[in-house]
Amino acid sequence: MKFGIVVFPGSNCDHDAMYATSINAGCKAEYIWHKETQLPKDIDTIILPGGFAYGDYLRCGAIARFSPVMREVVNFAGKGGYVMGICNGFQVLAEAGLLPGALLQNTSTHFICRDVYLNVSSNATAFTSEIPDGKVLRIPIAHGEGNYFADEDTIRQLEDDGRIPFRYCDADGDVTEAANPNGSINNIAGITNKRGNVLGMMPHPERYSDIRLGANDGLNIFESLKKCLN
Amino acid sequence: MKYLAKMTITLRDGILDVQGKTVEHALHSIEFEMIENVRIGKYVVLEVEADSKKEARELVDSACSKLIANPIIEDYVITIE
Predict the structure, then answer these.
(1) Which residue of A has its CA nearest to B41?
(2) Region label for A82, one of left (φ > 0), alpha (ψ between -120 and 50) or beta (otherwise)
(3) What is the model's pLDDT at position A123?
(4) pLDDT (tens digit, 9 = 90+) per residue, A28-79?
(5) How is residue B14 annotated by DSSP?
(6) Which residues of A make CB contacts under 8 Å with B?
(7) Do A108 and B18 touch (CB under 8 A)?
(8) What is the ipTM, given to two decimal places?
């Protein structure tokens, strides 16, 4: 099981993702520079990490999605390869059309950096298979534009298809308006594509993957992938 | 021939413009209670080489739909000079 971590100019969670996947989850991992036009052959999962790719100029993810490596990421996903976009990586996936919808500015207008709780709707996906039933994840967010938006038909489709694995909730797992940090429709914190091999999520599991940092709920996600793909 | 294109990009109707809302509240808190529905957008100016004004518009429209704007959340208006 090997992760490939894309490095855009402005990525700043690439090293955290490397640490979480290699040291904490015990998988192989390597960086992939955004100008690469070929992916290493042995990659099982690509991570688009958090940060501010291309300074978030124009819109978050708008320019990064035209990086040379993104053509390969789209092909990789098309062949069923697993792709995970975290925070800015989610914004890049949405801009690239690998996931529906867009991430708007937080309704508070503030950049929010704090822990949130996530309700896990299903552990039937490769990204959530090792999360115990009913477990509420505590994972940090750090974004100014995480307010998930899509038109009504798209939201209905996501709901009907069960493609919303993560929703903002309170400590007990209840999905409430008060627990929604950024105004996302239906408290959406993460979605998958129809095939289930592409995940985008605003919270940062890589930041809570080492118990020495106080919490390691994020590790569940990397271990789920490890279990499914090994 | 070189044409000058100007684009105004705004969030689509129905999408909450939190920046606009914040500015609107600030306007109300001073002396402009009569102002409402503030929407804030982007203004882009660029030059484009094309054989005709029509072609220039088509090129800029394509650039808007592919990169300059995100049609899922934004509307844009183009003027060509």
Answers:
(1) A58
(2) beta
(3) 81
(4) 999 999 999 999 999 999 999 999 999 999 999 999 999 999 999 999 999 9
(5) T
(6) 58-59, 62-63, 66, 95, 101-102, 104-109, 149-151, 183
(7) yes
(8) 0.89
Are the Cβ atoms of B22 and A109 closer than 8 angstroms?
yes
Regions of chain A with pLDDT less than 50: none
- pTM for this prediction: 0.95
Q: Class assignment of domain A2-229?
A: alpha beta
Distance separating alpha carbons of residues A180 and A188, to the nearest angstrom: 9
What distance in Å separates the CA atoms of residue A229 and residue A130, rounded to the nearest whole number?
12
Q: Tell me whether B73 touches chain A (CB under 8 Å).
A: yes
Q: What is the residue range of B15's domain?
A: 2-80
Tally of domains in chain B: 1
B contacts of A185 (beta carbons < 8 Å)? none
The DSSP code sequence of B27-81 is: HHHTT-TT-------EEEEEEEE-SSHHHHHHHHHHHIIIIIS-TTTEEEEEEE-
Domain range list for chain A? 2-229
* Inter-chain CB proximity A104 and B68 less than 8 Å: no
User: Contact A191/A101 with Cβ under 8 angstroms?
Assistant: yes
